[in-house]
From TrEMBL:
Top-level taxonomy: Bacteria, Pseudomonadati, Pseudomonadota, Gammaproteobacteria, Vibrionales
Fungal lipase-type domain boundaries: 60-205
Protein's recorded name: Lipase
InterPro entries the UniProt entry points to: AB_hydrolase_fold, Fungal_lipase-type, Sec_MonoDiacylglyc_Lipase
Highest taxon in the source lineage: Bacteria
GO BP: lipid metabolic process
Family matches, as SUPFAM superfamilies: alpha/beta-Hydrolases (SSF53474)
Pfam families reported in the protein's UniProt record: Lipase_3
Classification via CDD domains: Lipase_3 (cd00519)
Length: 263
């Protein structure tokens, strides 16, 4: 299993946060002036940003999570839909995430074709970059992380060894046991969970949904690796219940010393 270095974590986290504003100046973060393409959803809203530089091997795909009432409504579509006939992947995934991948992508560039679904639009942007020798890293927050896993698997199937890594933040589970078994990139996937983020336990159907990849849990100022879900859930609930009392500890007072001016 590969590791995720601190500077890599910070870079992906910053890009995920900055993916939400309407305007993103990629040159401020080391990408070329022409090193950004946008993938829009069916409503014409930005869903993904593809970022690259000519002098760097890595292309980064940043995917937004749920950011509208209709997006959150899709999270309730917890039945499974197959990816075999369209993506060539031998498993089924959450129906809401399936829709996010297969919805029509409104053109955002002169090279974009009308009627292309999201996954085709992304591939059309990435294909010339892949053929130029670049590799792809995919990162996303919440449902963006979930569909990022499926997109990475799809690209890896068509372009072997093209995926460098997948890093997700606050990602819900994507599919069932067949998804967990057949997903090709578990050793290159890092799933970041923060403290008591309840979205990372969704959908709340244990046998029907499974996670994959290496889980890194940021909890109590430490990083825990691959903590079993039931143990993490128990600790999270316990932490939530005792949180009001934790602010009584002297460690909290010491940590907040920087609030005071130097004398």
């Amino acid at each position: 299993m590969k590791t995720l270095k601190r500077y890599q974590y910070e870079r992906y986290a910053v890009l995920c946060r900055l993916a939400y504003p309407r305007v993103f100046k990629q040159t401020r973060y080391g990408f070329d002036p022409n090193g950004q393409r946008i993938v829009k959803n069916a409503k014409g809203k930005t869903l993904m940003r593809v970022l690259w530089s000519k002098d760097k091997e890595e292309v980064i795909v940043v995917i937004k999570g749920s950011h509208s009432p209709s997006d959150w409504f899709l999270n309730l579509a917890m039945w499974h839909r197959s990816c075999l006939s369209t993506l060539g992947l031998n498993y089924s995934i959450h129906a809401g995430f399936h829709y996010l991948l297969h919805q029509e992508s409104v053109p955002a560039h002169r090279q974009d074709k009308l009627g292309d679904p999201v996954y085709t639009r992304l591939e059309s942007i990435l294909s010339p970059l892949i053929h130029s020798g670049k590799r792809i890293s995919i990162t996303g927050h919440s449902s963006g992380g979930a569909i990022g896993l499926v997109l990475a698997d799809y690209l890896e199937l068509k372009y072997p060894n093209v995926i460098k890594r997948v890093v997700t933040f606050g990602q819900p589970a994507v599919g069932g046991w067949r998804f967990k078994k057949n997903y090709q990139l578990a050793r290159r996937t890092f799933r970041i969970c923060c403290d008591i983020d309840m979205v990372t336990f969704l959908p709340p159907i244990p046998i029907m949904y499974w996670h994959t990849g290496k889980m890194l849990w940021l909890y109590n100022e430490r990083i825990y690796e691959n903590t079993p879900t039931i143990l993490r859930l128990g600790r999270s609930i316990f932490s939530w219940l005792i949180r009001p009392f934790s602010y009584h500890l002297m460690s909290k007072y010491i940590r907040d010393k920087d609030f005071f001016d130097e004398r």
